[in-house]
Structures are given as structure tokens and as C-alpha cells.
Amino acid sequence: MLKPGDTAPLFDLACAFEDQVSHLSLGGIRSDLVVIFFYPRDFSFICPTEVVGFHQAQAAFKTEHTSVVGISVDDVETHRRWARELGGLSYPLLADHDGAVARAYDVFDARENVALRATFVLDAKREVAYAVASAINVGRSVSETLRVVRALRTGMLCPADWQPGGATGPADLKF
Asked: Is 15 known to be catalytic?
């Protein structure tokens, strides 16, 4: 799995967004930060809770100048149908049908033939600033991802469980 400091692999994938099919490349995303979350499959049990959670938090991510992108091995038409079933989504779902991007980020589960449940936050240089993966049967915390984005945007030392407005470490310390 990629780690903080690694350059994020580029991608250009078909995506479903606003009930349309198009393409999205990493280089085409203009926000300060990018949250890329990989998930196993559309029309599953845990994945919609995460996908809808990111949708519900979209305004907060936008306030932080952060784009959100979901990626799974499903094809783009499946993404489009699923997003419609979920009531629409405010960010694109990308179709990594052969798992090439999941492999490039080193989060492909070859036994299950799906992406792991992994989250990456990329900085403005498109280097990994944060990376986490969990067991396929455990959903991620959207609020924790947002907390990390907010902490990264401070540029300060943020202790465990830091929240906006909370104390940060001295600027003269490295870590």
C-alpha cells in the first residue's frame, strides 16, 4: 500500500457523475486536496453506507477545498445505476474494472478480485498525505477522514483526536 510521501499514481478512468458517464483523470482535479476511497463493490451491504456518508459530508469537504472520488472494480453503467438508486451522489464514482488503479495504489485483493476498503488523502502535489485500509468487512469513518483533512490543512502538529479549534503543537517542532 502506498504510504505518506509517495507520489500518487495517475489515472484516467470512466466515471459516473450526475447521472452521466464521462472520464476523470487525477491531473484534471483542481482542488487543494483529494480524497480517494477504494471500496469493494456497488450493490453491497457496507459500501453504500460509506458512499452515502461521503455524499452527506460533501459540503464540508468542499469547504476544505477537497475533492472526493470513489473507485471500485464495477463498470461505469453499474455505478450510474447504483448512484441513481442511492438518490444521486455529489461526487464521481470511477470504474476500475480491471483493478489496474487499485493495483497501482497496492490495494487490490486478488483473492476476492476487488479493491480493499482503503482511503488516501493526496496533497496539492498529489503525494500521499494520509493512507489507511481496513478489513473488507469493516466500514470506514467518513467523519475521521474529514477530521484528517482538516488537520492536514492546518499545516500544524495535530494531536490524537484533534478537532478544529483545538490546540496544536508548537510550530518549531517537526513531529
From this structure: no
Count Cα atoms within 13 angstroms, Cβ side, for 134: 12
45: DSSP letter = S
Q: Does residue 48 contact residue 16 with C-beta atoms inside 8 Å?
A: no
| Residue pair 95/13 in contact by the 8 Å Cβ criterion | yes
pTM of the model: 0.96
Tens of pLDDT, residue by residue over 26-79, are 999 999 999 999 999 999 999 999 999 999 999 999 999 999 999 999 999 999
3-state secondary structure of 111: coil
Of the residues 2, 8, 47, 102, which is catalytic?
47
CA distances from 120 to 22, 105, 172 (A): 23, 9, 27
